[in-house]
Amino acid sequence: MRAYSPKEIARLQIPELPLEGEWRAAFGRPSRYERWFIDGESTSGKSTFVMLLAKELCKFGKVDYISLEEGANLSFKRRTIRLQMDEVAGRFKAVTNITMEELAERLAKPKSANFVFIDSVQYTGMTFPKIKALLLDRFPRKSFIFVSQNYKGRPKGKPANDLKFDAGVKISTIGFRAYCHGRYVDGAGAYFTIWEEGAYKYYLNK
């Protein structure tokens, strides 16, 4: 147990993720080691947003994109080309056909990824306590970004809901906008526009 005074809390050195521009406006400056959770319906722009976020985080460290749902299929290939992921080739790796136990072994190696995307959490086949013990508790100085399928407007399955509750940055993609519900934004309703034309058409009819 450790008890902190307000002055001691103020002196804590907790590294921030130095997001700028539209990224900072939408998501603030979370801890560099924060847990993220991203959910959204099909055709909401979620897959594009997740890849854009991965590209942005390459500015601050190495990124492993654990592609459990799509693998390296044609849609995944086209997305990486369209978003010019070759620009961050030295820091971005798409990882397929891997279990969570194998991922833990990979992350235990020197110079492993700083940011780990798991897409999607439903394909891990694990409960929240198991994910927490295997990854979150073991690697507290890495940032995990969990991507989730939705069912009837909510994350699909109990593990996904538990991960969303646990995350410090919670993002939902709706109509080609990524809305942040996390702890680091100053104003309610902050969002990142994924696709300007698509968002305009979507909200024009609302």
Describe the protein.
With 206 residues, this protein is of the alpha/beta class. The protein has one domain: Rossmann fold (3-Layer(aba) Sandwich). It is built from 8 helices and 10 strands. The chain has helices spanning 6-11, 21-27, 46-57, 74-82, 100-107, 128-136, 158-166, 196-204, and strands spanning 36-40, 63-67, 92-95, 115-119, 143-148, 150-151, 154-155, 169-174, 177-180, 191-193. α6 (128-136) links the parallel β4 (115-119) and β5 (143-148). The longest helix has 12 residues, at 46-57. The radius of gyration is 17 Å and the shape is globular. The model has no long low-confidence stretch (mean pLDDT 95). InterPro entries: P-loop_NTPase. It comes from Alistipes timonensis JC136. This is AAA+ ATPase domain-containing protein.
Task: Please specify the SSE layout and strand pairing.
Blueprint: H1 6-11, H2 21-27, E1 36-40, H3 46-57, E2 63-67, H4 74-82, E3 92-95, H5 100-107, E4 115-119, H6 128-136, E5 143-148, E6 150-151, E7 154-155, H7 158-166, E8 169-174, E9 177-180, E10 191-193, H8 196-204
Parallel strand pairs: 1-5, 1-8, 2-3, 2-4, 4-5
Antiparallel strand pairs: 6-7, 8-9, 9-10
Short key terms for the protein model shown above:
single chain, about 210 residues, alpha/beta, two-stranded antiparallel sheet, about 35% helix
Strand content: 15-25%
Q: Write out the strand line-up for the largest beta sheet, numbering strands in chain order.
A: 3-2-4-5-1-8-9-10
SS summary, helix count? 8
Helix-strand pattern: HHEHEHEHEHEEEHEEEH
Number of domains: 1
Which structural class best describes the helix and strand composition? alpha/beta
Termini separation comes to 51 Å
The profile of the biggest β sheet is: 8 strands, mixed
Mean pLDDT: 95
Radius of gyration in whole Å, from Cα?
A: 17 Å
Q: CATH-wise, what's the superfamily?
A: P-loop containing nucleotide triphosphate hydrolases
- The CATH class is Alpha Beta
Per the principal axes of the C-alpha atoms, what is the gross shape? globular
CATH architecture: 3-Layer(aba) Sandwich
DSSP summary, beta strand count:
10
Work out the helicity level. 25-40%
Poorly predicted residue ranges: none
Assign the CATH topology. Answer: Rossmann fold
Protein name: AAA+ ATPase domain-containing protein
Organism: Alistipes timonensis JC136
